[in-house]
Amino acid sequence: MLTVQNIYKTFNAGTANEVRPLRGVSLDIPEGAFLVILGGNGSGKSTLLNAIAGTFPLDNGEIHLAGHNVTRWQEHRRARLIGRVFQNPFTGTAPNMSIAENFALAIRRGQARGLGWALTKNLMDELRDRVKELRMGLEDRLGNAIGSLSGGQRQALTLLMATCLKPALLLLDEHTAALDPKSADQIIRVTEEVIKRHKLTTLMVTHSMQQAANLGDRIVMMHRGSVAYRFEGADKQRLRVEDLLARFEELRRREMLDDSVAALLQENYI
Amino acid sequence: MTLLLGALTIGLILSLLALGIYISYRVFDIADITVDGSITFGAAICAVLIVNRVNPLLATLAGFAGGVVAGTVTGILQAKFKINPLLSGILVMTGLYSVNLHVMGKSNIPLLSAESLTTWAERMGQSWFGNPEVNLGGWMVSTRDLVTLLAVLAMIVTACLGLYWFFRTELGTAMRASGDNPQMIRALGVNVERYRIMGLALSNGLVGIAGALLAQYQGFADAQMGIGMVVWGLASVIIGESLTGSRSLGLAIFGAVAGSILFRLLVAIALRWGLNPNDLKLVTALFVFAALVLPRLLQQRKRPVAAPLGSS
Ligand SMILES: Nc1ncnc2c1ncn2[C@@H]1O[C@H](COP(=O)(O)OP(=O)(O)OP(=O)(O)O)[C@@H](O)[C@H]1O
Ligand SMILES: [Mg+2]
């Protein structure tokens, strides 16, 4: 379904700001799977999702999605297959346009847009039903600009927009990180519901061990641009928050060791 | 009264310019100086065709096409060659200056003796009223001016309705979103670069019509007629926004037209009161400067009061 083969990316190559956020990442995700991606700050999680979405061209490696080799597809072309929710609630919606208009944009994700009226009656009826399911009272405010809503409300709508046309792949990048705990729980509940109902293949980045332990059927933990640990099947089901924290600690120690070895080498040989 | 009719007519014609600027400035957040060149381009093409006895309606449409081409070039410079939007506009405007001189073959083409939309209006006035002058609420006005005003009004209303309709279609909604949040709309499958090119083409196309109509109304096309038009359009859009006080699409479009008319009336009054015409551009620039800076200054003065409310 989704295959990521040994992908590499370097930003600002050859300058003082050179970063290598992806150093040979591979994933193989069957249809309907729900992968949770963990990892420290700067370990390359968002860059991995951006690579899959096609935000930038890869240096190396290939990406196959739903039977297509999408490696050379531009972002707007891949959008036909991918629904996305971003960390920042401001990224996923057009603030000066109404809830209804944002939804009208999403319902034609990846399809031709013609000179037909955007806000048809059918669309409004469908939208009202779907928004009602969020139980946020937004169904009476469809004409309001999205910019006037709270972050949680915007994320809920973005999730709805990303999934109203069933995507082959759903990408969630810390989509609850900017929310207060109550809204975050609410969004996670909605996320679970939507993924279950439409049997969506999902990649979700999170910093919450709790979410990682409770959600999904597989986990990868990233470290310095590559996958450090993978858990699947029964392993994943057995995994508890403490186990995950222990793995994190291990990575942290390994990193310190790396740094001290580097320092040692530098002292002795340079 | 003649003065008022004239100011209204020019204000209406230039409202096409304001609508064009609304698209580039408000939808895409670009100050697109291409319009200085494309308004002249529209006028030049139209004038040359009219002098060569082409149907004036076709000549006006050719002015639109000229504007579309100019806007497309600016759009391509921005989207494909990643040149800074302001610089792209400056490049195309500068290039158009020479193009316009080539199109016209000289720096000024008079149209007074040629068959244009204005002569059509004159003839229509004659046949409707049977008289070169008509009594309008106690004022004697020339039927030519009156019919011209009405015809221009009809065109502007059509343009506004067309634009409103377009921006409510799937395509137009996506175009507005490309300006509002490019990252989001790209993730929804829109080729933002292409939409930006289309938007600038449409914007400059409207400006091209404004040029074509202006040339026919004032009876000549001139290589210098575009200078400062972008600031003029910005002033109209900004006045329109303060009139309607709203970002809603319909009101914004109406506001751009109303702003253009009001601004032209203010200018006519100022000139009547003895403003030196040479100072007009300076005054316009100062006006736009004030309109851009004042709201921010006011906000800064309010902030200390607003902050505790916002954080509670
Ligand atoms: N477009 C870019 N240009 C330059 N550097 C980039 C770009 N995108 C990401 N990076 C760099 O790549 C590294 C990895 O970033 P990334 O956002 O993938 O980390 P992350 O795992 O998502 O971290 P976080 O948990 O903080 O979100 C960082 O050092 C970041 O600065
Ligand atoms: Mg990230």
Report on this structure.
- The complex is a heterodimer of chains A (270) and B (312).
- Chain A has 270 residues and is of the alpha/beta class.
- In chain A, 39% of the residues lie in helices and 23% in strands.
- Chain A contains nine helices and ten strands.
- Chain A has helices at residues 45-53, 75-78, 99-106, 121-133, 151-163, 181-198, 209-214, 233-238, 241-269, and strands at 2-11, 19-29, 34-39, 60-65, 68-69, 82-85, 169-173, 202-205, 218-223, 226-232.
- Chain A has a six-stranded mixed β-sheet with strand order 6-7-8-3-9-10, with helices on both faces.
- In chain A, helix 6 links the parallel strand 7 (169-173) and strand 8 (202-205).
- The termini of chain A are far apart.
- The mean pLDDT of chain A is 92.
- With 312 residues, chain B is mainly alpha-helical.
- Chain B has one domain (2-226).
- In chain B, a hairpin with a 2-residue loop joins strand 2 and strand 3 (139-142).
- In chain B, helix 1 packs parallel to helix 6 (143-168).
- The model of chain B is unreliable at 305-312 (pLDDT under 50).
- Classes of the chains: A alpha/beta (270), B mainly alpha (312).
- Chain A binds chain B through residues 53, 74-77, 79-80, 82, 84, 90-97, 101-102, 104-106, 108-111, 113-119, 145, 161, and chain B through 166, 168-174, 176-177, 180-181, 183-192, 247.
- The complex binds adenosine-5'-triphosphate and magnesium ion.
- The site of magnesium ion has 4 residues of chain A, from helix 1.
